[in-house]
Amino acid sequence: MNDALRRLHRLVTTMHGQRALVVWRVIAGCTILSQYLSALPRRHFLLGQGGVFPAELAADTGMFGLYSLVQSDLGFELLYFGSIAVTLAWTLGVLAPLSTVAVLVLWRSTFDRLPGLGDGGDNLTHLLLTYALLTNVRGPGAQRWLDRLPTWARELRAMIHNTGLVAMWIQVCIVYFIAGAAKLHGEAWRNGTALYYALGTEQYSTPGLVEPLLDAPVLLTLLAYTTVVFQVGFPFLVSLNRHARRFALFVALTFHVGIATVMGLATFAVFMIAADLTFLTDAEVLSMRRRLERLWAKTRTASLSKLENNNHNNNESKT
User: Fold this and answer.
1) What DSSP string runs through 97-152?
2) pLDDT tens digits for range 270-295
3) For residue 252, pLDDT beyond 90
């Protein structure tokens, strides 16, 4: 019994998933930055006082945002470019969790200013940013100051971090389960034709990639049923054991890469991939990093060797 209690104590008082949260922060931060930069030429049309959704109508929605407080063009520019600067700082891990709060408020303000702008990936990331306020998103090296604190303080900080991380996991599982359960109520999903009709529209199809799929209705039917089963089963797979969790993450990554390429929902897919990666352990993130470093070293060595051989052959041909 004492051994079980010690293992439980060690489990809850050790920070988990710190490196996975760094990966999530970088991917989510880069995606938010891409949204700001892609809207940069049309920022006044989208978010300005006289834009596509007038400020008076935005105020009537009852949603509060910083853009509703800005009355001048100068203030608007300072808010917009300040949001970009703060998001860049957060992506680099500067001044978190303060920068986490700033990103949450500033980014949320863009959606309050223009309701309907976001999608499921944006909404999920808003929630994850809230839970991330409890966590260490800067990585293990940023917590060295904890070594100077008493043991009880270090353990309390670890428990708060783990609470935020588990809240993120639960939120991701809820998103998957509700998405899958909701599909069970749709006739098109029950008869397996949902993907066929979705890919047949211009809004959710990438020319050149969707045509071969439309010519394979049996495959689309299998993918439709697989999608429902996977989404409903995701919370159970990630909770079962290490192998089931890795399988679920592999399928999830493949699923969202397909959504990004075939359906063109890039930001949604990237936000979901970032959320999925929070389920990785620190050891798994380190292992992936080492593999990528070895792959990069081999690729670099092969490229340099090929370049040297080409230079050598060119010199011989000249002589």
Assistant:
1) THHHHHHHHHHHHHHHHSTT---HHHHHHHHHHHHHTTS--S-GGGGGGGGGS-HH
2) 999 999 999 999 999 999 889 988 88
3) yes
